[in-house]
Amino acid sequence: MTERAKEPGAGPLERRDPTLSGGVDAVLLLGRSGHQGAAGEGMVFLAEAVRATGRYLAVRTAIAERGLASLPEGLEACAQAGARKVLVVPVFFGRDRSLIYWLSKAAYRWSRARGEPGPEVVFAGAIGEHPALGEAVVRAVADAEGEASVRADDFQSLEDPLAWSVIPPHERHVLACLGPRCTSRGAGGLYVHFWKRLQERGLLRGRSSVHAAQTGCLSPCNLGPTIVVYPEGIWYCGLTAEAIDRIVDEHFVGGRVVEEYAREPGRHERLKGER
Ligand code: FES
User: Fold this and answer.
1) CA distance 263 to 268
2) Is 218 in the pocket of ligand 1 (CB under 6 A)?
3) How far is the CA of 65 from the centre of ligand 1 (A)?
4) I need a surface site. Which of 140, 147, 253, 265 has the fewest CB within 10 A?
5) Which CATH number goes with the domain that contains 122?
6) What's the domain range around 46?
């Protein structure tokens, strides 16, 4: 049983008004894309603001694609804090109903898979649809008028770094899916592990290196997390840290495809435990 411990920085629990919050005692701010951590930093700032209201037991952040933490990891963090009802707030624009629908399914899967009763999870509309956002933007634009942070002529040189004109030498090219479904299955953490493993094996530079690129959805979402390795054209699916270690050692170093995780294009398959 998790203890309902108060989060650092949260105000007294008595200040939370259940009639205002509808029983919500935790908030998970869900960003859309966490490319290179930039979205993550902005989310931390927003989380601090929500936390400062003192209304919630826990306020956490998650990223729907290309980042950490994933939605299930964020929900688990709320559950571990003792939350009974989590409000997931999409911090992005647009009425992407199919994404919200799928994310709610991912939350349901997380709830089913954890093996013990967890908090109720509800989704809010995207923050980009909220009418108050217009006022906030008007104010931010007015503030920026007098103190723009970068001028177009701050950088007098028209030269870009020389490295941007060279295709890095490599032996293999890997496309690593960090689309929303693979991300919710832990692809963000796996990609960090993959990169470290390549570094440990000396495979990040030189003619025999592996050139890895993060991508959006590659298509077979039910089989994620997924990578594709070229020039062989091998699709590796249902990846774990152990699978990554084997692929790096056996395939990239040893030259043998790891058949256990390789999937053939065109065949309908389900991973173990997939519903
Ligand atoms: S999100 Fe990775 S295959 Fe669709």
Assistant:
1) 10
2) yes
3) 10
4) 147
5) 3.40.50.1400
6) 13-134
